[in-house]
Amino acid sequence: MLSEFELIRHYFTHPAPHTRLGVGDDAALVRVRPGMELVVTVDMLVAGTHFFPDADPRRLGHKALAVNLSDIAAMGATARWATLALALPRVEPAWLRAFASGFMRLARRHGVALIGGDTTRGPLAVSVQLLGEVPNGQALLRSGARAGDDIWVSGRLGDAAMAVAARKRRVKLEAHELRAALRRLDAPTPRLALGAQLRGIAGSAIDISDGLCADLGHICKRSQVSALIEFERLPVSAVARKRIDMPVVRAAVLAGGDDYELCFTARPERREAVRAAARRAGVPVTVVGRIERPMRRAQRVRVVDGSGRIMALGKGGYDHFG
Predict the structure, then answer these.
(1) Domain range spanning residue 70?
(2) Per residue in 184-221, pLDDT tens?
(3) Burial environment of residue 69 by CB neighbours within 10 A (0 to 12, 13 to 18, 19 or more)
(4) How confident is the model at residue 318 (pLDDT cuts 50, 70, 90)?
(5) Strand 226-230 to strand 301-304: parallel, antiparallel, or no bridges (unpaired)?
(6) Are 304 and 231 in contact (CB under 8 A)?
(7) Quick check: is 315 in a domain?
(8) Which of 116, 135, 154 is the endpoint of a domain?
(9) Does residue 128 contact residue 65 with C-beta atoms inside 8 Å?
């Protein structure tokens, strides 16, 4: 059986460009380029909480990095370095080979160097810390939304949560529909190019990890505003559209989580600039509502249907301790 250090050397030691010192010492050494600020994020994925225990290891490796890349994208930053901590119930070479392949393929695609980490025996869990760079003073924040701003989202919403609902037998999908939804759940696409293109255009941004309403609520709280979403404007797949009257599907679109799309705000006069940025990034974007002044004794995020009636939201999003 491989020892801890043999495991790291065999599966997780790779060339680390733009790094003074990578895997092999007590800590790594990196050098941030002049005129840049360091952006740091970390996420943990735990079997049974964030992914199904039988998840494909290649896709899990991809997702473990992708969820952090999505945070970097929401800041308008460029991803540079990653560390990986991995708890394993047992050492299975085939599983590790597939996991490392998924992780490193996405890392290479975005120019990310794996520069360190840790492994231990325990219940399956993956923790990734990601470091990036953004030009001084240009990071996209949650605190920049203003009354009158458009609310935008990238891509489509709800498919990942529908995949979870299907696995739990709360909604029935055809086999090809389930495969497509599972791809959205297991292998999300971080919107790094879009985030970078939105610097200087968007007023605020966040990635949609815990559900649109919950994550937009974070923007509202930090910006001291409220938001109005028009449900019929929300971009959804054909699979979701034909089931949109089902409460479980509506909940997936509004509050399901695991979309890893960007939600951002911008002044109405910047609409063409936003669309041009999205074209350069190759990502579809949609205006779904507007930012309003804060309302007393009201939810920060309200959703209206096609008739203008307020929709009941129920649980607003994923809560790790809910």
Answers:
(1) 4-135
(2) 999 999 999 999 999 999 999 999 999 999 999 999 99
(3) buried
(4) very low
(5) parallel
(6) yes
(7) no
(8) 135
(9) yes
